[in-house]
Amino acid sequence: MLKVTARSIAFVVALATVTHALATDRLVPAQFGTIQSAIDAAVAGDTVIVSPGAYNERLNMKGKAITLKSVKGYTQTILDPLAGANYLLTCTTGETLSTVIDCFTFRNSPTGGLKMTSAALTIKNCRFLSNTAAQGAAMWLQSANISIDNCQFISNIASDRGGAMYALSSTVKLNNCIFNSNKSTGTRGGAIYAETTSFDVDGTNFLGNREEVGDESYGGALYLLTCSGTFDLCAWSDNVTSSSLKSYGGSMYMDGSSPVFHTCTFTNCYAFTSRGGSNNPDSEAHGGSVYMINSASPIFYDCQWTGSKAEATGSFGGGGCSNYTNSLRGRGGAMHIRESCNAKLYRCSFTSTLARSAGAGSSGYVCYNNWQYYVNCNSYGGAIWVKRSNLFIEDCNFTNCSVNDQATGNVSGANESFGGAMWMEDFASPSILGTRFEGCNAEYGGAFFMTSQSSPFVS
């Protein structure tokens, strides 16, 4: 039987006191010429304190439970590599949430800001600015657990996916952060690309992020593949997915993902295509703000969509010699939902959202045998387009939502607009309860339009 005595208790207290006393502040550059040399000398519980300046270093935390902190904050304490390869900060040796980074700017790295694999990290009051990489120009995460508080991600560019962040099989917590003007020139995720990742996001804003590429683009701010989690009090504004052929989800693209959103806003987000020339394939814009597919099942509580639009445009003529019809489609001004999804909306509002197609066919004959180029424009679902999916809507408002088509020059077939607020087709089964439609406009179906296979329940 273990015997506890006053002496043994005193020994434990004394040992704890000694251990705490051994924690040391290591000063850069007063004591150490570089930040990395201070990290190398530090032991668990130490704090590396860095004075203002621009440091041309790339750091490795080496699994240490220490705090790396600047004296004057991120505006005056900057990691800028100037040249060379590798990430500005690496955590790949089993770091824990007790490894803390506080008050730095990570900028101008041509090979990425932070890399984490099989590690954890707490990072706060930092800025990731103008970094570039193939994936996740600010952060590349795999099997990571990261807590990010009060950080900024600005003007980071990825050539493949995830302008600011790439996350694979990770846990990501974001609190009071800003993602502004990040871009992917690949195909997916202007700000964040994530697979099989869990999110806990609170009070975070996504502003002016872009996914833009030649033929197809997915997710102006977020691309979520089989992800989960919560987004509370977040805002998406002026995010864009843009291409010449097909664009999906101005704010986000969700494939098989099921996050929950509370009190979020989506303002002036945009899925946009612009096509021109001759003999081109159809051009389509889907989901001005949100695109969901493959059993995605998000839930939205008390969220607002304002001014979002899906717009397909083009001007056709010149080039080869044939009669050719170019089709333009705008589908779902705010949301595009398809393929076995189960989305739910409670107390949400859609205001002045728009699905639009606009194009011009060649106005005169081309080639010796009078062949011409034609344009065909159709638009569907000023707020929501849904196909082969279930959608539950309760106590929501649709105000001044609309669809619009504008074809000029040589026009082929009927150019029409359907469902000022909603379009439903091909076994769509929405339930619409206690919901109001006001001032919505379309050529066919001012509030909503459904094909013969649809079976909505409206009460």
Instruction: Note the total helix count.
Output: 2
* Share in helix: under 10%
Count of folded domains: 2
Low-confidence stretches: 9-20, 318-323, 365-369
Strand order of the largest sheet: 1-2-5-8-11-15-19-23-28-33-38-43-48-53-56
Structural class: mainly beta
Number of strands: 56
Tell me about the biggest sheet?
Answer: 15 strands, parallel
Whole-Å distance between the termini?
71 Å
Q: How much is the radius of gyration in Å? A: 26 Å
Write the layout of secondary structure elements.
Layout: H1 6-22, E1 25-28, H2 35-41, E2 47-50, E3 53-55, E4 59-60, E5 67-70, E6 77-79, E7 89-91, E8 100-102, E9 105-107, E10 114-117, E11 120-124, E12 127-129, E13 132-135, E14 139-142, E15 145-149, E16 152-154, E17 157-161, E18 165-168, E19 171-175, E20 178-180, E21 183-184, E22 192-195, E23 198-202, E24 205-207, E25 210-212, E26 216-218, E27 222-225, E28 228-232, E29 235-237, E30 240-243, E31 246-248, E32 252-255, E33 260-262, E34 265-267, E35 270-277, E36 283-286, E37 290-293, E38 299-301, E39 304-306, E40 309-316, E41 324-331, E42 335-338, E43 342-346, E44 349-351, E45 354-360, E46 373-380, E47 384-387, E48 390-394, E49 397-399, E50 402-408, E51 416-418, E52 422-425, E53 429-433, E54 436-438, E55 448-450, E56 457-458
Parallel strand pairs: 1-2, 2-5, 3-6, 4-7, 5-8, 6-9, 7-10, 8-11, 9-12, 10-14, 11-15, 12-16, 13-17, 14-18, 15-19, 16-20, 17-21, 18-22, 19-23, 20-24, 21-25, 22-27, 23-28, 24-29, 25-30, 26-31, 27-32, 28-33, 29-34, 30-35, 31-36, 32-37, 33-38, 34-39, 35-40, 36-41, 37-42, 38-43, 39-44, 40-45, ...
